[in-house]
Amino acid sequence: MISIETMKYRAKKMVGQEFPLISWRGKGRIAAVDDVSVALLVRGLRVDLTWDRLVVTWKRVLDDFTLTVDELGGRADAVGIVSFFAFMQGDAVDVVDTDGALVLKERQGMPVHQYTQGASRPR
Description:
The chain is of the alpha+beta class. The protein is 30% helix and 27% strand.
């Protein structure tokens, strides 16, 4: 698993690179990267994300072991974040495209936010 700082460093060299979208059909693209934000094109819609927002969201992934498009609101920015993390993390995560989710492969301990009783944990 790589850190947000490593993602930022690598993304700067990947402007123009396409990546598969999670939960939506099509491709996303890294449009611009600087020290404050990353701009993604998600099915033609520009999504500007601050690195601070990505840091908070990545911490959530590390705490809960999963992240879904729905829990982030289901819109283009949510698809962009989940897809960007899946693309940048590569083999460190599993993608459940039908659920719009990414799941950490290596997990230790219990997630901070438990699944409700009777709900199944994403695999």
